[in-house]
Design goal:
By secondary structure, the chain is an alpha/beta fold. About 45% of the residues lie in helices and about 15% in strands. The protein has 13 helices and twelve strands. Strands 2-1-3-4-5-11 form a six-stranded parallel β-sheet, with helices on both faces. A six-stranded mixed β-sheet has the order 7-6-8-9-10-12, with helices on both faces. Helix 5 links the parallel strand 1 and strand 2. Helix 1 crosses helix 3 and helix 10 packs across helix 11. It is elongated and about 85 Å long.
């Protein structure tokens, strides 16, 4: 492979001049710069970025760790992160913890060893103490989707409780009093907050919270499938169900299909997190839309600001959710013409 010495010889300049052109570290005349750049192209010279980072004691790489890359929510989040960081000349290293704390620790330790400039991650643990060893390394860490208890660094989350409350209140407004809940593990902050919203809506309407109607599972399609079957097997099944993530909603739909039950005539549904397929169902899905792209973009912007000003106080940005009403909740007059407002805004930002 051609070296910086080869480029200097081809351009008839010093090695220092080539280094200054490559790194933009000093003013170089247009004539010399053109000669160096022409030599770089002719030789197909690739600067050794790793060595350059070691010399400068810095890196242009950001680590990102998500909980479940198969969940369509997270690719949109990562796209938001990537768009902001690429514009600032940073690249990503991506890991998938699969909701496993030990696996997450391994990724965080690896990223720290690689010398990344910062880390954006969806925590698997609800305890900030699990991350103290990484925070002590002085590598900025941004929590997304959920913030562990006692978290003293930056975070970007959404209004989980408010969104869940709106969805269940909407189902109550459609005449339902026996409303099921299919939720993730309560030790995960998002699941806990969404259950709080479910319970608040029932209490506000003067309805009793019935534990038999609540199923805590694993935020996966198989979990949603099992939970819906259990609810349908009750002596008195719910007339409506709120499901707190998109993968579990797919599993619940599978269970309803196998029982030959129709939405919303046999059972009404509302979900959490709007997906493109939501409007393609026979009864398009009423759901709580999350600003997933904006969540990622906001986290990336916070990280860039933190890298520029390390002494900034910790910031927690709370993004709003949106109730999108469609036919699955029993509404007769609904719009299925396109994506939610949050999806439209995210698409516009990606194209900007």
């Amino acid at each position: 492979m051609p070296t910086i010495k080869d480029v200097a010889a081809r351009a008839s300049v010093s090695i220092a001049t080539v280094s200054h052109v490559v790194n933009g570290s000093r003013f170089i005349s247009d004539e010399l710069r053109d000669r160096v750049q022409s030599a770089i192209v002719e030789l197909d010279y690739q600067p050794n970025r790793i060595a350059r980072n070691l010399r400068a004691n810095s890196t242009r790489t950001i680590g990102v760790v998500v909980s479940d890359i198969q969940n369509p929510f997270f690719p949109s989040v990562v796209r938001g992160i990537e768009d902001v960081l690429q514009a600032a000349d940073y690249t990503l290293l991506l890991g998938n913890s699969d909701w496993n704390l030990e696996r997450e620790r391994l990724y965080l330790a690896t990223l720290r060893a690689e010398g990344v400039a910062g880390i954006i991650f969806a925590p698997s643990s609800e305890e900030a103490a699990e991350y103290q060893q990484f925070l002590k390394s002085r590598i900025p860490m941004i929590a997304i989707d959920r913030a562990p208890k006692g978290w003293q660094s930056d975070a970007v989350t959404v209004t989980n409780t408010k969104g869940a409350r709106e969805a269940v209140t909407h189902l109550i407004g459609q005449g339902h009093q026996r409303i099921g809940l299919i939720n993730g593990p309560l030790q995960i902050g998002t699941a806990y907050e969404r259950q709080v919203g479910y319970e608040q809506a029932l209490t506000d309407a003067g309805l009793q919270i019935e534990p038999e109607l609540v199923r805590d599972t694993d935020f996966r399609q198989t979990g949603g499938y099992r939970a819906m079957r259990e609810l349908l097997d009750l002596p008195e099944p719910p007339t409506a169900t709120f499901i707190t993530n998109n993968l579990m909603t797919l599993g619940a739909l599978q269970a309803l299909y196998e029982r030959n039950l129709h939405i919303p005539s046999d059972i009404a549904l509302a979900g959490f997190d709007d997906m493109p397929w939501a409007i393609a169902l026979q009864a398009p899905l009423t759901t709580i839309a999350q600003p997933s792209y904006e969540l990622g973009a906001t986290a990336a912007q916070l990280l860039l600001e933190r890298l520029h000003e390390p002494e900034l106080p910790p910031r927690h940005v709370l993004l709003d959710t949106e109730l999108v009403v469609r036919a699955s909740s029993g509404v007769q007059h609904h719009s299925v013409d396109g994506p939610s407002r949050l999806e439209r805004e995210s698409t516009r930002k990606r194209l900007a």
